[in-house]
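Weekly structure sync - notes
Attendees: PM, LS, DV (DV joined late)
Agenda: review two folding runs queued last week.

Item 1: First target. Sequence and structure tokens pasted below for the record.
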Amino acid sequence: MGLLDGKVAIVTASAGAGIGQATVRLMLDEGASVVVSDAHARRVGELVDALAKEYGEDRVIGAACDVTDEKAINDMVEKTLEKFGRIDILVNNAGRNKLAMVQKMTDELWDLVIDVNLKGTFLCTKAVVPTMIKQGSGRIISIASVEGWIGSPMGEAQYGATKAGIMGFTKSLSKELAEHGILVNAIAPGVIPNPFLRKIYGPMLDTVPKLTPIGRGGEPKEIAGAAVFLASDLSNYVLGETLVVCGGLYFH
């Protein structure tokens, strides 16, 4: 028996190497059927083909979806319902970041990060809520960041603003939806080294072990474990929370 037997999950930005794909794999391991959603259609197809061989074609489908495109999101939800008939879990994992000090930040950069990280979370959530209300149950889990609390001196004001916004969104939404049996929570990772972050931070990533009491950066599977906990019956009395998973980088 898996923790998520019979559940159906959508995980956004899950075709690359990182938290999204790790979450997909762990949820499949725990018995869920999963929709691999990502803006990069080729990567979606490649990962779904690989997962179908490992877990079975009946348990995994792909959806090429840009979370800033409301039509694409609605198409993803419709495809999920056509295949599986329900949506039990949404993991809002899509995110963008690009460093720029505020005096040099363009409106276009600000809007890009806000649109993907914060508005994308809103649009995906909005799309699944009617189904979850009809079911009388559901879990919405959004990936925030400890940066939403502690900030950064490296030109990430736009990123921190979105992650703090996700935490506020989570709190209010949890109060809106609890009466419908829908539990809404977030996860605040610390630094989880991956190729995407390496492109942004470069050698600065190597300083992470010096910052955490645990002595290392995190692994995607450790954030995936938190997501599975929040998606499962083990967290039935948890809502409106942001679960910090950062190796002691920040205590909340």
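Item 2: Second target, run right after the first with the same settings.
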Amino acid sequence: MHERKVDVAVIGAGTAGLNAMGQAKHAGKDFVLINGGELGTTCARVGCMPSKALIQVAHDLHRREIFDREGIVGGDALSVSLPDALEHVRDLRDILVDRVLGATTDTLGEAFVEGYARFVEPGVLQVGEDTIHAASIVIACGTRPVVPPAWVDFGDRILTSDTLFEQDDLPGTIAVVGLGVIGLEIGQALAHLGVSVTGIDALDTVAGLTDPDARQSAIELLGRAFPIWLGHGAELAQADGRIRVSAGEHTVVVDKVLAAMGRQSNLDWLAIENAGIELDSHGIPVFDEHTMRCGDSRVFVAGDISANREILHEAADEGRIAGYNAARADSTSFARKTPLAISFTSPNICTVGVPFAKLDPDTTAVGEMRLGPLGRALVMGANRGIVRVYADQASGVILGATLVAERGENLAHLLAWVIGEKMTALQLLRKPFYHPTMEEALQGALRDLLPKVDLAPDPIDAPADLEVLC
């Protein structure tokens, strides 16, 4: 048995852990990075990047649907080799993972400890035969896909985002259970690649949308690619080597099921009860999101394990906050960025700032534009969807937005920056909007919003989007 003392121990070599490690290293602290299981971040290995590679292939193939309208001949003859497409996805994935490893764990030497860490007592970790005493500990051990125990008997007929991209081929039929970001993105991509897809969610919404108009638009548009069953959980049964999936009054028999019902923490491997910190009712450490510190302890959390903002840029921020404070005696509170979530479906589904469900209807004004008349969207064959912008009625300050729109990812970033700067609807409307662009959908929503807030141009009869000089 080998004993070791360090200033900072980081558990988990994902996005959050690597960023935490970087802060400890920058501060000149003696540190170790501990990781059990596969190396490579969740994003690069099984999440953001391989899914986007698959989505791109599916989008390129699906574009043939509009070729006849554009006078392009031969689109019907185009097809896809699914094994080759999956190999392409893995090739890109491997490049990205190798880049991560080459810049991080491959360079650490003895500062990298391979194995699963568990708390022996506060400040003391066991990794295999080694005992590590750490002045500060950052927990960034990540999550894994949720698979109900009752589904284990179906074996490799149950896929997750961890196993999908390792398949040699795609099934002819699949049920996607869980229509959050992962389920929607993969479900639509598979449908566009020719797989018969059925989407199921126990909730009455998709992508976590709470804005009723945006929700209706998203369900209608995504439902053109595959049937969507909402409001009932999925029940699975054996069906002569296949799987019978039932949800409410609906039943379908499929080759495989994609479990996309979210992710669960890896804390169960950590003996977290020995860490000397407070846990919530779900067994997650209680922490301050501005310091990532657990109470008065020297334990910090970061990344998906926090169950707070399970998005890469947020995981990176949390890792930097946790690592910065773990390397110092006193904790510094950091501002968090405007909430931003994007589903890379077609159209994109985006939520920015305060979600609709948390707005006070008595003090909030809503402006919207439907994409039907938008010139650029019409040219792209994507003039379906909606942009909804929320503002404080008294001040006109923009609070949030929900978008169901092609290239909504760009509008969502613009709105996130605007919200972070506490800009008003009038201030944003007075910025230039080039024609023809998708940004004109935002301009239309702002024009609809402006009369509903107590902030009028001066003089009142002047064009709202022009600032009067004299």
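Discussion on item 2: Residues 234 and 458 are 57 Å apart (CA to CA).
Action: LS to circulate a short write-up before next sync.
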